[in-house]
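Bumping with the actual sequence this time:
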Amino acid sequence: MNIWVQLAIWVISYFVSAAARPKPPQAKPAAFGDFQFPQSTEGTPQAVVFGDVWTPDWMVLGVGQYRTQPIKQKGGKK
């Protein structure tokens, strides 16, 4: 009988603590300005890499198709 009382107290205390804890703030979605990409300067030689390769110096030549909303399509296959 003692174990059931302890189990009931544990369950009640769990629900009370879950209801009393503060709610976490909602995070805003990341904006494009939040990212910092290393950019190449004019005249820097560019390498074309095929596959997975480790390079000592890397840079981002372009970042495209940045979206903050999901892509929605109307209709199905035609």
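The tokens above came from a reply further down the thread. The chain has a mean pLDDT of 77.
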